[in-house]
Amino acid sequence: MLIHHLRVLPLLVRMHVRSQMEYRGAFWLDRLAQILSYGSVFATIGILLARFDTLGGWTWPELALLFSFQLLAYSLGAAMSFVQLRDLEELVRLGTFDTLLVKPFSPWAYLVFSGLNIGYTGHVILAVALMGWAVLSVDFTWSVWSASFLVAALISATLLTAALITMIGATALIWVRSNHLFSIFFGFWELTRYPLNIFPGGIQTILITAVPLALTSSVPVGALFGKPIPILGDWAGLVSLVAGPIWVLIAIVHWRYATGKYKGAGG
């Protein structure tokens, strides 16, 4: 069964990618719009830095790495989860989720891989380019260890992002409605493009615990640069690395619980 799943997944991805690339001109224009949109956000941060020199003790290249890290982790994680799990609410409401339950295939795997969102290409292009510039410009001595930590923390942040989105989407299997929770998610997510220490203590606690999105941005990047990290302190680096795998396990448990509570289209 596992081998069967692994053979089918690439086929699902190819079919969905082909459908998204049917109108290539429109696809790439949309990606350009994304780059310009997030580029304007970064330009706003640049304007702040031009006026105040630093933000929470972070310099311009450090903030560039923070912004690109946050955007890249989100893009990779959301490509595997956001649109697919956001649409789960509609599948549950209309009763079409039932059809996935009778397939000889994991409903989660089918949802994720049949809807792999390559629309995040623009995010990835901007994030990689900006990260490349930041790595070369930041006043920091890179080593094999620090580069390895950056890559490992990025993977962990990607897993954490996908896990949180999966848990939000899976809640629709219990409540039917769950998309309002995404508004809360993105409200906190927008805060994480800035250093954690500029926020009040209550928000810092929320961003590390209840909605741990700081672990996808300023905590790992701050730990890399040796910045003081509120609450976590010297444990920030280790927590950043293990957060992703731990939240994936939590998301798996939550998904199984939610599917167990699902009553079907008839209620």
Automatic annotation (TrEMBL):
The chain crosses the membrane at residues 32-52, 64-83, 108-136, 142-175, 196-215, 235-255. Keywords: Membrane, Transmembrane, Transmembrane helix. InterPro entries: ABC-2_transporter-like. It comes from the Bacteria. This is ABC-2 type transport system permease protein. It comes from Rhizobium esperanzae.
